[in-house]
Design a protein that fits this description.
This protein is of the alpha+beta class. It has helices at residues 60-69, 90-94, 157-172, 203-208, 214-233, 284-288; strands at 2-3, 11-13, 28-29, 38-41, 49-52, 117-125, 129-136, 142-149, 181-185, 191-197, 201-202, 236-237, 246-250, 256-260, 267-268. The N and C termini lie far apart (44 Å). The model is unreliable at 87-110 (pLDDT under 50). The structure holds adenosine-5'-diphosphate (ADP) and magnesium ion (MG).
Amino acid sequence: MLHDQSATKCTQVYSSNSQSFQNGRDRNIVIRNDFNTEIGMGGTNCDKIRFEIKLLVETDEDIVDMIKSQKDPLFNPADDPREFRTLHDTRDALMPTALPSRGMSRMGSPGFFKMRYVKVKVLGVGTYGVVSKAIDIDTGVIMAVKSNQRRGLSWSPQEYQKIRREAETMQKIAHEHIIDMINYQGWEDSCIEFFMGLKDGSLADIINANEFDDKKGSRVLEHMLAALDCLAWNKILHRDVKPQNILYTRTPESNYDFQLADFGECKMTSSARSCKGTLAYMAPEVLDNSGVLLTPKVDT
Ligand SMILES: Nc1ncnc2c1ncn2[C@@H]1O[C@H](COP(=O)(O)OP(=O)(O)O)[C@@H](O)[C@H]1O
Ligand SMILES: [Mg+2]
């Protein structure tokens, strides 16, 4: 990250594809190997001294790994403290989002800035689009972004409502075993984006890697029952509980924390009647499609 802490705001990034500081925002910006590498400082045009940064790491993945493992040579606690770089609160921001981070949420603040980010890698391909690992350019926060891409010229009211319901439900629920929504945007555009805490993988990945065992089994059961209890209390049906939609984060004690994700099929109990979900995991009463009002039991 580049932090412009000068009183006169006399630092700027150059180069053709740079993502510069934005007026009104904190003057922090992510430096990557393909943009924002040209920096100018001083003078009225912020270019009295102009230099180019060459990153010693090759890929974004390396940068993320370096941040995560704190192998940053500028942040070695054994160093002379006078040599420490100024960090303020950015160290927290640079850490990946573990479990819910409600404090980070910028939801509901009218006129808030558009999230600016760079995608690092694809994590999963969904019904409407792609989930990618991404870095927030303005804060350095590593997160997951789900891009719901419109296929036609406009969203059908049903599609739009479904995506809106998914976003609003995730935003409304704060629970340690339910995926944390950081922000969303793009309601007027062809691509609606959800920003979520980044998880290490899904229960399906664990099963496919043949790493599922009794210990993980009892943990996932405990965590999912807690998540479903919270949803039932809030009169929400998830309707698509399955290994692909249960994400995990490895804890420092080599344990697994599971979170329920993908609220694409969720509905309030007062109106859930239709047959929705994934066939192999559907409760019999959902499959029946008899039009009766469904209860939270369909998720357990
Ligand atoms: N926050 C996240 N962190 C890490 N991986 C994620 C995250 N959200 C989704 N994924 C990955 O992307 C896949 C698809 O996301 P999901 O929300 O389930 O989309 P869909 O509605 O299309 O099923 C998941 O199965 C998971 O592998
Ligand atoms: Mg899914």
